[in-house]
Amino acid sequence: MSSYVYVLRCGDGSLYTGWTNDLKQRLAAHQSGKGAKYTRGRLPIEMVYFEEMPDKSAALKRENELKKLKKTDKELLIKNLK
Question: What does the alpha-carbon distance between residue 49 and residue 6 come to, in Å, rounded to a whole number?
Fold first, then answer.
């Protein structure tokens, strides 16, 4: 089963990185204020980046890698996607 790593841009300009096995459902949860505690107080949010991974283990590993990046490096990753 595929899993996903994603990056959200919050209303305050900050970036949130997470993982899920249902991207559409998780985004809806974040947008409704029922996602992560971090994003609840920073609405609105938009998904600016995601990667499909082969399984949960790979997604968790990639999430950890992305969380270690500086914001400027995440912004470059997002920019290169467009």
Answer: 6
